[in-house]
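WARN retry 2 of 3 for item q-0093 after timeout on previous attempt; input resubmitted unchanged.
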Amino acid sequence: MIIVTDEAKNQAIRLMDEDGKDGLFIRVGVEGGGCSGLMYQLKFDNVESEDDRTFENNDVKIVVDKKSYLYLLGTTLDYSGGLNGKGFIFKNPNADRTCGCGESFSI
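OK item q-0093 returned
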């Protein structure tokens, strides 16, 4: 499961409302790249495949592809709007190392 903080929930709902589309959810994934080897992917989507894993936490629907699921299990999705940067933050207990920007990691 992926845990969604209140801050991430509020920001996601605000952004989905701005898009004005019904049925959107957050798609989270992992792909090769970045300075630590793996990069997080996050986008709004409305199409699920049969291999996807679907979760609902804090009234937010999260969809993860089968390949990324093992890398993201137990991750918390947070949001920071502070002066040091604005955006969604992944707190991944499976990551051995993360880069300074927090957008990539290794296991």
